[in-house]
Amino acid sequence: MPFSLSEEQKQNLVWLIVGILLLSLLAALGPMLSPFIAAGILGYALNPGVDWIARRRIGPVRVPRFVAVTIMVLLLILAALALVLIVVPLVLRQIPQLQAQIPPLLDKLNATVSPRLHQLGIDVRLDLAGIKALLTQQISTSGDELWASVLASARVGGTALLAWAANLLFVPMVLFYLLQDWHPFIKRVQTMIPRRWAGRINTMATEVDDLLGQYLRGQLLVMLVLAVYYSVALTLAGFDSALPVGVLTGLLVFIPYVGFGLGLVLAILAAILQFDGAVGLLWVALIYGAGQVLESFILTPKLVGERIGLHPLVVIFALLAFGQLFGFVGVLLALPASAIVSVIATHVRREYLASNFYNRQS
Length: 362
Hints:
Elements: H1 7-28, H2 30-54, E1 57-58, E2 61-62, H3 65-119, H4 128-139, H5 144-156, H6 158-180, H7 182-191, H8 195-236, H9 242-251, H10 258-274, H11 279-305, H12 312-353, H13 356-359
Helix pairs in contact: 2-3, 2-6, 3-4, 3-6, 3-10, 8-9, 8-11, 8-12, 9-10, 10-11, 11-12
């Protein structure tokens, strides 16, 4: 008897093939889609703010949605510019001071370390002239030299730089149009869901939305607590640049490792410039070591992991797994993606436990 498919099975097969082709196309267009993905993530985070502003009234008239969208996009751009204006002047101000501090710092290091190594039977002679020249050359790119270095990099990787700049300008534009039509867009997506699955998928989407909302609130709390912690701790340790370095470290904690690393580097530079000896570096090691423990083992598992129903071990595994699979972007998306996977896994488990395959005795 020849194998034949019913009309419904044929339609299912056709749409399955179409879905696979669409997924393949999206995978092929992955690099081009990065600004759209970034805009989608920002749009999801900013849409509640847009809705809140759009519900306000100026006299008898509600605020138009395009005005609310414009306000939120401008606030986002201003926040990004504020971070840049905190970091760049701080770094540019410290580079010349650090350049002047390198020779006496290396002399002091040589005078302290070499005799102790000699007592242990280790004869090491530091090439101070070479080290000084190398470090001075590496950090002396200030002013005109900095711009020359930037231009040289642009000539070497001009295409990549232009693509990066285009994406940077493209994201706010995509974000504006996405926020403007956010609710009609969501409705169009909902109408594309097969009717027999619509109820279940809408339920799952509601649960995912609730979890992601809790994730965002938890992440904001982590950022706020760490910004206060680093600012207060560095201030008590006597750092002159405690406020900008502490706030920057806390606010950039949503980028795993990058925010902590940048804040650590700035704090080390400040310690070298401000303190004599190793006192400043010891304070930095103590403050940032305790901060990393506080973030990794207390704040993130309690304020973020528990809010999205994930065990601390699952949080750590998600960060490692998504980082391994998708690189830096995967680390950024690890926890929210895990929240989505946890909702899907819950429904799959429920269906499995209710299935004949599971319950059949023989």
